[in-house]
TrEMBL record:
Domain Cytochrome c: 71-148, 168-256
Protein's name according to its UniProt entry: L-cysteine S-thiosulfotransferase subunit SoxA
Organism, scientific name: hydrothermal vent metagenome
GO CC term (a single one): periplasmic space
UniProt cross-references to InterPro entries, sorted A to Z: Cyt_c-like_dom, Cyt_c-like_dom_sf, SoxA
Lineage: unclassified sequences, metagenomes, ecological metagenomes
Entry keywords, A to Z: Electron transport, Heme, Iron, Metal-binding, Periplasm, Signal, Transferase, Transport
BP term (GO), one: sulfur oxidation
């Protein structure tokens, strides 16, 4: 099955799949966009592509300030044992967004920020949040807000399991799925910057770096994994459980190929035309 996919995909995107080693693949993907648009520096791919940039509102606060304030408050609220989240994260959990995702050599899996928030809760006698819980979203949003402009730096440990999860994420990104039989790569590489309805398709570079996204039309926050599922919906493929292994490996792949680009989350979407 894997061989079949690679053969099919090689037919569409030869340059990108010729490198199987993660570092060379990352280089080829970044070079592809640099060759295509030499005037666009890599660092600007994470800029916001929403109509009204990530700007502050008239009040001088970002539109997601309520969620950010809530996240900040939750982060320092003591659990019943007197500890709080800052005991679980370095730097009290501030400015650490670029530590994620990472390959955890102990458990042999990709760990995400949301997962570590839940792990911290469980270590401190609290039950884990559902991954679409508003408080979970606020905590992650606040932590990412304190990490804006951090440089993406996903480490590939010298461990064949890490390369295997990278390859699983990569295969996910390049595999056709859904009734439309389309891969993420078709839209986010081949059709990057073209229109999809009223929206512009963002390129693979910068793709994960603006999430979570705040949508002012309904005052909600969309997480990276929710966005993956929305895009799967475009192709009429089934969604995956939030924080499932498949989506975490996809996240690992996407951040790794974006190494050296700055984070720019949370971002703001002003209106929905979907
Ligand atoms: C049919 C085209 C199409 C396909 C296929 C597609 N996407 Fe998207 N994707 C889009 C469009 C259009 C947007 C921008 C939506 C917006 O502005 O709200 C987007 C946005 C995103 C974003 C948010 C980035 C940002 O800042 O707006 C991520 C992450 C993403 N896609 C990942 C994926 C992944 C992973 C897949 C494969 C499972 C995928 N997409 C498949 C069209 C597509």
């Amino acid at each position: 099955m894997y061989v079949y996919l690679v053969v099919v995909l090689l037919a569409c995107l030869p340059a990108l799949l010729s490198a199987s080693e993660p570092k060379s693949h990352q280089q080829q993907l970044q070079d592809y966009f640099l060759d295509k648009s030499p005037a666009i520096p890599l660092s600007s791919y994470a800029n916001d592509n929403s109509p009204l940039d990530n700007s502050i509102t008239l009040s001088g606060l970002p539109p997601y300030s309520q969620q950010a304030q809530q996240g900040k408050k939750l982060l320092s609220t003591p659990f019943s044992n007197g500890h709080n989240y800052s005991y679980c994260f370095r730097s009290n959990g501030l400015g650490i967004g670029s530590d994620y995702p990472y390959f955890d050599v102990l458990s042999g899996q990709v760990k995400t920020l949301a997962m570590d928030v839940n792990e911290c809760r469980e270590e401190n006698g609290k039950s884990a949040y559902e991954y679409d819980h508003a408080d979970m979203k606020s905590i992650v949003l606040y932590m990412m807000d304190t990490s804006r402009r951090n440089i993406t730096n996903v480490i590939m440990p010298n461990d064949p399991r890490a390369e295997a999860v990278f390859n699983q994420g990569k295969t996910f990104f390049f595999s056709r799925r859904g009734q439309l039989d389309m891969a993420c790569a078709h839209c986010h590489i081949d059709y990057a910057n073209k229109s999809y309805g009223q929206q512009q398709i963002p390129p693979a570079l910068g793709l994960p770096l603006r999430m979570p996204r705040y949508d002012s039309s309904n005052d909600t926050v969309t997480t990276l994994h929710e966005r993956f599922n929305q895009c799967l919906g475009y192709t009429k493929a089934k969604p995956f459980p939030l924080q499932s292994e498949a989506l975490r490996n996809l996240e690992f792949y996407l951040f790794y190929v974006n190494n050296t680009l700055p984070l720019n989350a949370p971002s703001v979407k002003q209106s929905i035309h979907e």
